[in-house]
Amino acid sequence: MKTHRAGVWVPAGVAVLVLCGTAFGAAKPEGGMVGKPAPEIQAAYWLNTEALSLQGLRGKIVVVEFWATWCPPCRASIPHLIEMNHKVAGKGVVFIGLTDEDRKTVEPFAREMKMDYAVGGGSKTGGVYGVRGIPHAFIVDPSGTVAWEGHPMAGLDGALEEQLKKTPPSKMAPRDQATALALMDLVTKAIEKQDFAGAADLLAKIPNADDDPAVKQRADEARRVLAEVAAKDLAEAEARIKAKEYYEASVALERVPRLVPGSDEARRAEAKLAECMGDEKIRPVIEQGRRERRAADMLAAIGKGEKDKTLEMLLKELGDLADAFPDTKAGKGAAARIAEMKADKELMARMRLQAAEKDCKSWLSMARNYVKAGMPDKAGPYLKDILAKYPDTPFAEEARKLLAEIGQ
Predict the structure, then answer these.
(1) Reported CATH class of domain 352-405
(2) 222, 231, 343, 347: most buried, per Cβ within 10 A?
(3) What is the mean pLDDT of residues 281-305?
(4) pTM for the whole structure
């Protein structure tokens, strides 16, 4: 049995917190929520989306509409809401329809009406918002404050358009926004340390920085700083060229496109660098400078982890540097150090012991395993290799004892 309420047939025995208006505009807005923090929304289940919360949508403009399947004005509003949702797609606006009805009632209805915005069912949020009649909509601004409330067919369009101008929302997904803000923190720290190239590289990892107002504001400030540094680099490059310090000029010119990619300054720097590289007198100077830089970086890397390397490994890395860059300061320094190390008899003895330790420990382990497995014949070759290659080490004495034990 059904009972008639406010011109709408409602299932008898159902406690209805929000009553449907009999015509568009009949559900008059109370206006009591405008300017107040929007209460968090809740639903027992969701359609067309994962579970949503206003906290998780902070930075967006959110339209929250309370409705029901049994409400004729609600039904009439749905096509309009769908059209509005499509109109602002990609602009950082999220539409949410909340009803207190169960899933078996709402899901087929939403499918029939082609409701493609977020729908939450089994919701008790209407009471928290003080809704007395449905349909009733609220606009929640990016800060989480209620900016407007009323009938979705009576002013929502204009109010939403005005809100988009007043508080531009984030067009990023919440997760992308959090990532972008975290990257901007790193950009700021890099700039504070005057690591401008590093800051530019981090900024480049936020491809849609302008899609979020908070991110854009910080990104614009970073871009301003980087543009100032790029301008100084251009001026420095010109001065270096006049002083015939061509390599130093090339370093400054190479940095500009990295700091301000795609800018006029970047194009000027690239053109100037190409001009320098096209000069037969200047190009060799720049190329030698680049070799010096690569060799110096390689030497610095060798020295950074030197304490964790064996002498054999250190000699090899120094040798690779000396072979690759023999005409550089770092390459010559590496060659000189190799000669010094090889002339140190005590050092060379220690290096041989290090090499012996690596090989012999492995061979002794293999030999012991074969002896334990009852295969002494297979253990013998490992032990004899120790005696042949490292006869004057403690490992040789251990190998002799084990050979004696197995009768070899």
Answers:
(1) mainly alpha
(2) 222
(3) 95
(4) 0.63
